[in-house]
Sequence to fold (350 residues):
Amino acid sequence: MKTTLTTQSRLSQVDFNNLEFGKNISDHMLVAVYENGKWGEPEIMPFGDLSLSPAMLSLHYGQSVFEGMKAFRMANGNINIFRPQRHLDRFNRSLDRMCMPGLSMELFLGGLEELIRVDRQWVPGNDGASLYLRPFSFASESRLGVNISKKYHFIILTSPAGLYQPKPYRLKVETNYARTVEGGTGFAKCSGNYGGAYYPTRMAVEEGYDQILWTDGKEHEYVDEVGMMNVMFMIDGVLVTPQLNTAILDGITRDSILTLAGDMGMKVEERKIKVSELEAAFKAGKISEAFGTGTAAVVAPIATINIGGTDYTVQEPGPDSFQISVKNLLKEIRLGLKPDNHNWNYIAKL
Ligand code: PMP
Fold:
């Protein structure tokens, strides 16, 4: 792969014991351009500004899609890219929804692997840390009319990330705004879903909450997701999570946790969850755990859910709770300390 190495590494400026998520971008990036119906040869180059047209279509009409994934330094020193096939499958589903060209495994994983090889010193080894991987694609044809672009960029950036343990969330059930709606783009990881969520989230923060518990965009009756995570509840000893639909992102952490819950012999239900069911379960004292799931934190405990003006509280998860146990198990699998029975670890060739 054509590679231009930086002459001024920024590695020595990074404080690996105090990593702020997304702040330090590794020395190199991968760039590939799609033109004339095909992807060109990817190139690795020093991370830096690009020259792009202000008329490029993604800025105006939103053809822009990304992924968020992680690589871990394993106990034996290997570097593990976690579930790349599943991330590529989701990336390609997102790209297809936005009429953008898909990527081959060779370009996606080959690119990630080569970039990580070049910047392998950026993969942290301290507890709970990882290299966050951000593959993304956007329309880069310069043209003002509303049109499906004929030109795209695919870029991979990486950034060392520290242990992220959010304090238990206070949530507000959203009944006015929608993040997305069935038939919309919620299942796709496209940029517009995130920009559109800022305003209702800011309103919730002004009211004293941390995040939104998103409900279906039509009736606001069923639970969809929490903030930028999938959501799970332990109701009467059963792990319950909303079943996927076109408004919900098919989280890779969600899938990993559901799979491990099955392995642990837990009863798991993927189904529609009514807000009124949650309210009744809270009143009956049946909810022992509630948490979000996502690549950044793995699990994020939920402390409070406001339903119709009443704050319902969930006890803080103890060390034996399901969410802490499954988080630890997933960590051990990723580090190679427990068997990887589902072939989730991809060991990068360095
Ligand atoms: N929902 C949304 C809207 C998200 O942005 C994310 C983060 N990618 C998730 C759920 C969790 O997905 P994953 O477990 O793949 O990170």
In short: The mean pLDDT is 97. Residues 255 and 309 are 32 Å apart (CA to CA). The chain has two domains: 2-161, 169-334. The domain at 169-334 is CATH 3.20.10.10 (D-amino Acid Aminotransferase; Chain A, domain 2).
